[in-house]
Structure formats: C-alpha cells, structure tokens
Design brief:
By secondary structure, this protein is of the alpha/beta class. 37% of the residues lie in helices and 15% in strands.
Length: 265
C-alpha cells in the first residue's frame, strides 16, 4: 500500500483523482484521457451509458474493463429517491453484485443542485440494502454529517454547480465539512481547471471527482494530465503544511545578519 493512499470501501487507491466518462467524442478519447489522468476509479452514468443494459450495443466496459478500473455507477439524471434507488439496483445486477456506488439526486434541471431531502431518503434505503454509498451533496456541514450518520462511506460536496467550471466558491463550508468528517471528503462538481483541483486538495480534501473539466477542455487528454499533477501537488502541499500568512509584515527569505560586506562592531 502507498503510504498516502486513499481508502474507499476498504480498498486503497494510489490516485486521489476520480473521473467521469461522459461528454467525450468517442470511447477512444475517453480511454486516452482516463489513462492520462491516472485515475483508478471511474464513474459511469447508468442512465446515459451502456454497460450491458443494451445488448448488442458498444459497452463502456469493453474500453474500461472492471479488471483494470473500479467502476463507480452513478445516478446522474435522477430527480427522486425512488429513481435513484431503482437505477443503482439495476447497476448492481449489471456489475455482478457490485456494491460501491455514487448517489446523486438532483433538484433542478438548470442548476443540477442536489435535492437534499430526497438524497437523504435514498441514502438511507441504499445503505440498508447493502450498498457502499458515496454521495453528492450540498456544501452544508449539517447535512454532510447526517449522510455520514446514515452510513455513507464518503461525502462529496459540490465546489460549485455541475459543469459550471466556477471552482470552489465557498471554501469555508468545505473546510467545516472536512474538519468534522470521519469518512473521506471529495469535491464533486464545479472544478474548471488545474488550480481548482489543487486548491481543493490544499484545503484538505481527500480527493476530487470531475468530468466536464477534462472532457470539455480543448485538449481533454492534455487537461487530464494537468489534473493528475494538480491533485498530486495540492495533496503534497497540504501534507507539507504551508507557511503561515502574515499580514502587514514582511519577513526576509534570507537571514538579515552576516551579510557579505557587512562590517562587525
């Protein structure tokens, strides 16, 4: 095990970058971008991507086989708890009993903001049904704690709206969630570029999940590599412990005494 692995559902992963599989021009570009990202967990929208529910059609699992990647089925496009539960039960059947899933219950088709009452309802049913639930949620510390208390194995607050690329709009709430949580906290939604991913990791997030930031870039494969480096750099900076900020006072980076040419008294 890597000394700084992230552990999800009892399994250690080297990469703290999780990536989606939608919005690429074809499966070949999907695979190339994911390889460049170094991601080991890939999330799949069951309502939008064929993983066997459409026999005879190309399946994503032919390009991203479960023997090489951990497939994380998600409920993108679900607006009720019942729809989300039904979708993930289908995914479990398609993936031979696979229990690790990503729950998202949306509240609005324009903003894709989470419907938290329905999310909490679905989470309770899924956990009771034996699923290992990673859950997309609002950046609300109280509701994040409720999801953890239900038994979710990871909470995934949004940085900003899905697909917006606006970055982390409320780092204070995110920090509160990180400080209270005993399960992994991963930023999910809103990352636009490498610096956003680095900031999330510097705040102390355990990982970052993204899709549009890579797939929507002009060069998705190049951006995937940039995101890999950003997540690694942000994590190392967090572990290193940044210097304190000092307002209204400068401190020379070099010692002030013993300067060349400085006489002694």
């Amino acid at each position: 095990m890597n000394a700084d692995s992230i552990v999800i559902a009892g399994k250690a992963y080297r990469s703290r970058l999780l990536v989606g599989t939608g919005k690429y021009k074809d499966f070949a570009q999907t695979r190339a971008a994911i390889d460049a990202s170094g991601a080991e967990i890939v999330t799949v929208a069951i309502r939008r991507t064929n993983i066997g529910q459409e026999p005879g059609q190309p399946s994503l699992l032919e390009v991203l086989p479960p023997s090489q990647f951990t497939i994380l089925p998600n409920t993108a496009g679900c607006y009720t708890a019942d729809d989300a539960v039904r979708t993930l039960r289908l995914a479990r059947e398609l993936l031979d009993g696979h229990a690790l899933v990503k729950l998202e219950v949306l509240g609005d088709p324009q903003t894709l903001f989470p419907n938290m009452p329905e999310t909490l309802k679905a989470a309770a049913v899924l956990v009771k049904d034996g699923f290992q639930v990673m859950v997309y949620c609002a950046d609300d510390p109280i509701q994040a704690r409720m999801l953890e208390d239900i038994g979710c194995i990871a909470v995934m607050p949004l940085a900003s709206l899905i697909g917006s690329g606006m970055g982390i709009l409320n780092p204070w709430n995110l920090k509160l969630i990180i400080e209270q949580s005993k399960v992994p906290v991963l930023v999910d939604a809103g990352v636009g570029t490498a610096s956003d991913a680095a900031i999330a990791m510097e705040l102390g997030c355990d990982g970052v999940l993204m899709n549009t930031a890579i797939a929507g870039a002009q060069d998705p494969v190049l951006m995937a590599g940039a995101m890999k480096k950003a997540v690694e750099a942000g994590r190392e900076a967090y572990r290193a412990g940044r210097m304190p900020k000092k307002y209204y006072a400068a401190t020379p980076s070099s010692p002030g005494g013993g300067l060349i040419g400085q006489g002694t008294k």
